[in-house]
Amino acid sequence: MELTEAMEELRLGSYDEAADLFRDAAESGNPDACDFMVQMHLAGLSGRISREDALHYAIRGYELRSRDSCFHLGSMYRSGFLGEPDPAKAWEFLLEGAEKFGDLRCQHELGEMLRLGEAGGGPRVDEAVRHYSTAAAGGYYPSQFRLARIFERRVPDFGVTLEFYRNSAEKGHADAMLRLGEIYQNGIRVEKDPAQSMSWYRKAAEAGSREAFFHVARWRLLTEEGAGSGDDAGPLRERLEKECKGKDAGEALYLLACLELAGGNTGAARDLFRRSLEAGCLPGMVRYAALLAGEGGSTGEDGLIGEGDSAQTGKREQAGNGSQIGDGDRIDGEQDEAQDQEQDPVRAFALLHAARIAALSGAPGFRAHSELMSQETMVRRCESLIADLLPELSEEQRLRGERLADETAGRMFGIREQGAPGSEQERQGQAPGKGADPARDQGPA
Q1: What's the pLDDT at 441?
Q2: Is 366 domain-assigned?
Q3: Domain end (from 145, 164, 183)
Q4: With 80 as the cut, is the pLDDT of residue 306 above it?
Q5: CA 100 to centroid of chain Cα atoms
């Protein structure tokens, strides 16, 4: 009766009450209740179950011959749940669970220990494959995915690999879905299939893959096909806003800015591109500088969707919402006299030069976001905008912009250009060609 009541409390989300009832049942000798106590702690569902409680009930479950106890104890000793990892004890419990209870999770963990060299004697992939194969044959999809990863590198018949990826993906394995998306996107030993690739990316994103979500977001916002897909932008916006606080904030802010541009919200887009720059996104620097230069959302040499939908195309706007870079990354460390205007040619000139230097030098910030804008596109866009800006700048403004560009590239990307960024060709209002300045001549670092 206690177990039934505990399950009902668990279903209702009354986790502390469920923990108390599971505890009573476990102390009364119910092995399933012991398993639930461990699982609730590992899932962080109740503060009433401590780490010591979890270990206690894992051992108690083992004594009561609980089916899950070997897996729980093996995992705890493998991870160092209460201290240093103990591979010997982990192997002992996992092997018992695999052999006595037929626990596929234990088979998989044994394979992991062998593959990673945790069982002694260094990595033993061939032995690991035997354990993975046993678990995979029983339908355990993490093992099917692991076999696919191994076979992709070692088995000539790619059809076997694809079958394991598909089996794992169809059972909900997000990483398998992601890999299938990559395989069909890049034509890895198959014909490229953009539609099938995006289908798998979508499924992986829905299954919780952040990497797959960004694949979908880039397709939706940076390609004509995605822009014309008719997908509701609401969920995309909501997810991007959440990702703006995570480790991929620079890319999320950039894509959110593209979404604002697609809706004609140039001011909001400008602020988001600025923030993406502050988060270290080099393409964000280029797009922010383009707006400071008064581009106003013109359609792209780069072909990026979201840049051509503003009603202000080609016009110099005067009213604005502030264009200064944040205090941490302001290119000159000072308040700019034009910070309350939408256009700032000197700042735009400096940022475009800095971005060009960084792109040509293979800056880490660029490599991390190269899927947003290719090196060739970035350099071409910077050079075109610089050529447009030069006739508007006085000699003093140009020199100040060059100084700020060098300082910015050095501070943000650890790059110093050899010599002044502006060549004689650029000063005459022409786009620089190959070999126009030392930064271009150096090529990627």
Answers
A1: 33
A2: yes
A3: 164
A4: no
A5: 41
Phi, psi of 243, rounded to the nearest 5 degrees: -70, -20
pLDDT given at position 324: 33
Structural domain of residue 16, as residue ranges? 2-164
Q: What is the pLDDT of residues 29-64, one digit of tens each?
A: 999 999 999 999 999 999 999 999 999 999 999 999
Tokens describing residue 150: 């191994």
**Contact of 238 with 218, CB cutoff 8 Å:** no
For the record, the structure tokens of 386 come out as 């610089």
What is the rounded distance in angstroms from the CA atom of residue 153 to the CA atom of residue 168?
18
Kindly write down the DSSP assignment for every residue of 100-116, as one continuous string. Answer: HS--HHHHHHHHHHHHT
Q: Judge contact between 31 and 54, C-beta under 8 A.
A: no
Q: Of 139, 164, 189, which one is at a domain's C-terminal end? A: 164
Q: What's the confidence (pLDDT) of residue 329? A: 38
Closest CA to 310 of 258, 257, 262, 254: 262
Distance CA 7, CA 15 (A): 10
Dihedral sign (CA 342, 411, 416, 434): negative
Burial class (CB in 10 A: 0-12, 13-18, 19+), 120: exposed
Q: Distances from the Cα of 273 to the Cαs of 235, 267, 282, 333, in angstroms?
A: 20, 10, 10, 19
First and final C-alpha spacing in the chain: 70
- Asked whether residue 423 is assigned to any structural domain, the reply reads yes
8 A C-beta contact, residue 358 and residue 415: yes
